[in-house]
């Protein structure tokens, strides 16, 4: 069983950056993610999807082009939901890959599963004593 100096729960912006930062200090780090994709709300459900859709809406409306250059811009008449949604999943996929590469580059062990603490009183122990385990038990990769 692998042991780590630090087990980070969640691969959102906070978890990813925190885990990477710890490796700069020579720590052996594992990161546990329960969702099917890394990136947390920032990449998968929040910031990136919402801002990409906003940019797409602004682009198709021609608002920015008109404002900046005073050009005549007409809305594409046969615009479909597929056109509208095209860029968002592409971007999200690309950014998930960036997070995965970042974890790999820093040698951070990515563990798939839901992290739970043993109990209310068991805190992470840097010497590798009981600290946290993933659930279900077969996914456990942190010390017992
Ligand atoms: C619709 C929307 C739009 C937003 N727009 C912006 C914006 O424009 N600008 C901005 O700065 N912020 C924005 N935010 C906020 C931003 O997304 C969050 O502040 C940011 O994602 C928080 O990062 P985090 O790493 O703390 O948590 P999260 O991104 O929530 O990541 C937490 C991760 O931990 C995992 N996790 C949780 N518990 C466990 C467990 N027990 N075991 C294993 N994994 C676990 C989750 O699956 C998730 O992947 C937006 C949020 C939403 C919802």
How many E strands? 5
**How many domain regions?**
1
Succession of helices and strands: EHEHHHHHEEE
What is the straight-line distance between the termini? Answer: 9 Å
CATH topology: FAD/NAD(P)-binding domain
What does this structure look like?
This protein is an alpha/beta fold. The protein has one domain: FAD/NAD(P)-binding domain (3-Layer(bba) Sandwich). The chain has six helices and five strands. It has helices at 13-24, 40-44, 47-61, 63-69, 81-85, 87-105; strands at residues 6-9, 29-33, 109-112, 114-117, 132-135. A three-stranded parallel sheet has the order 1-2-3, with helices on one face. A two-stranded antiparallel ribbon has the order 4-5.
Could you name the key traits of this structure?
alpha/beta, FAD/NAD(P)-binding domain, binds flavin-adenine dinucleotide, 144 residues
């Amino acid at each position: 069983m692998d042991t780590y100096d630090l087990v980070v729960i969640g691969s959102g912006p906070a978890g990813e950056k925190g885990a990477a930062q710890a490796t700069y200090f020579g720590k052996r780090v594992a990161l546990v993610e329960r969702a099917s994709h890394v990136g947390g709300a920032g990449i998968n459900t929040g910031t990136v999807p919402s801002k990409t859709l906003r940019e797409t809406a602004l682009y198709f409306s021609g608002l920015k082009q008109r404002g900046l250059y005073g050009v005549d811009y007409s809305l594409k008449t046969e615009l479909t939901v597929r056109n509208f949604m095209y860029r968002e999943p592409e971007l999200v996929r690309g950014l998930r890959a960036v997070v995965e590469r970042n974890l790999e580059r820093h040698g951070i062990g990515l563990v798939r599963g839901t992290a739970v603490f043993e109990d209310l009183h068991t805190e992470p122990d840097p010497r590798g004593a009981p600290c946290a385990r993933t659930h279900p038990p077969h996914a456990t990769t942190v010390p017992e």
